[in-house]
Design goal:
182 residues, alpha/beta, Rossmann fold
């Protein structure tokens, strides 16, 4: 049986999302894994369809795709803030709740606490004295905790200790290779 991987992440918002997704699918195929990306080119917005109806159609399509996958490979690179994309985290939680393996990577080597401090400096909290979680984790402790518990491996980060471009694929490929060896 060939392993099917749901390729989660905010990559779907890239200006070249289709091309980027194709590169990820090809990398998976090199390792004998079928990569499935939740792009929305396969869903058509009908004339007169409300935003809510269209959003629900995308949600149902993504859930159906996740149902058909054995594992998730989640891009947890910070997106529009110091933490991973919220939609991707819902997908990670979906796999965790179903007891399916979770594998994840981030192109950010910097720690969650450091990224959060920088954000708070730029946009102060509305409530003073809020604590910044500083446990040396790549994201909120629940996220790498879920990845480790459900996949058996920690989130993969850049080996060189430097942040990589959001759309870089070297850490993703290390993740895929790890899964293939397993």
């Amino acid at each position: 049986m060939t392993l099917k991987a749901y390729l989660a992440g905010p990559d779907v918002f890239l200006p070249n999302a289709r091309e980027h997704a194709q590169r990820k699918i090809e990398l998976c195929a090199r390792y004998g894994i079928i990569g499935r990306t939740p792009l929305n080119q396969d869903i058509q917005r009908l004339a007169g369809m409300s935003n809510d109806d269209f959003a629900q159609a995308i949600f149902r399509k993504d859930i159906a795709m996740m149902e058909g996958c054995d594992i998730i490979i989640a891009n947890l690179t910070p997106f529009r803030g110091p933490s991973a994309d919220s939609g991707t985290l819902v997908e990670v939680g979906w796999f965790l709740g179903r007891g399916r393996p979770i594998f994840a990577y981030s192109n950010a080597a910097s720690l969650f606490a450091d990224r959060t401090r920088l954000q708070v400096e730029a946009l102060p909290d509305r409530i003073s004295g809020l604590v910044v979680e500083g446990m040396g984790q790549p994201d909120n402790l629940m996220i790498p905790g879920a990845v480790l518990a459900a996949g058996g491996y920690p989130m993969l980060l850049p080996l060189d200790g430097a942040d990589h471009a959001f759309d870089a694929l070297d850490v993703f490929e290390r993740c895929v290779a790890l899964i293939a060896q397993r």
